[in-house]
Amino acid sequence: MAKKEEKIDILENNEAIAEKLEGAEFWIEQNPKTIIGIVAAIVLIVGGYFGFKYYQSSQNELAQKEMFQAVRYFEADSLNLAMKGDGNNLGFDQIIDDYGMTAAGNLASYYAGVICLKQGKFPLALHYLEDFKASDILVQARAYSLTGDAHMELKDYESAAKYYAKASDYKPNKFYTPAYLMKLALAYEKANQNDKAIATYDRIINEYWESSESQNAKKFKASLQKNS
Q1: What is the pLDDT of residue 160?
Q2: What integer is the mean pLDDT of 108-130?
Q3: Does pLDDT of 47 surpass 90?
């Protein structure tokens, strides 16, 4: 109780406050090296943070320039050149190695994953696609779906379902989500999880009834129920 009263007295007593401040000033005067060390540490942390951000931004700009030709090769379906480069321009794999901490390096992982998927290199596709992270409405969901495709090719249907579920739950929309749900239902069927497959078809039918996938969902659901 006495301690509580003492705290109240300090708050209400200007002289007590002054004594506390004088004590703090005395400690500062007696410990100048400690204060200098604390201030220097703060300056280093703040300066280091902004320095890193500037470095990262400049590296990202450089990576974008380096990646320009690789993207052109990708769009022309010259996949080996896009991946490995042409001797003068870097390919996606080298861009990932050199600029992996940048946004451009992150996007290069997506391109590399797509290339490996097209080339049938499914474990390597998983390596690249699972490293990719984005916050946009389209590409991240697409990356989840492609990761599911790689797992499907490897006949790992439960993992495929996991990633198709991520794709369909990521910022759902009427344009792409129904297609991801159809893939999810198929993965559940392959994994012999028919109840989950039927529930997924129902979601398409009820939530995306205007989509082109809705009619197929009704057909596949009926077939699944008939054979169950």
Answers
A1: 98
A2: 97
A3: no
Q: Identify which of 106, 98, 102, 100 has the alpha carbon closest to the alpha carbon of residue 54.
A: 102
Report the chain's mean pLDDT, rounded to a whole number: 84
How many folded domains does the chain comprise?
2
**Residue 123: C-alpha distances to residues 37, 132, 164 (Å):** 50, 15, 17
Domain identity same for 123 and 28 = yes
Give the residue from 77, 130, 133, 142 showing the smallest Cα distance to 106: 133
Separation of alpha carbons 72 and 66, rounded Å: 11
Q: In which domain, by residue range, is 216 found?
A: 140-228
- Both structure tokens of 151: 């797992």
Q: pTM for the full model? A: 0.74
Note whether 19 and 103 are same-domain residues. Answer: yes
In a domain? residue 169: yes
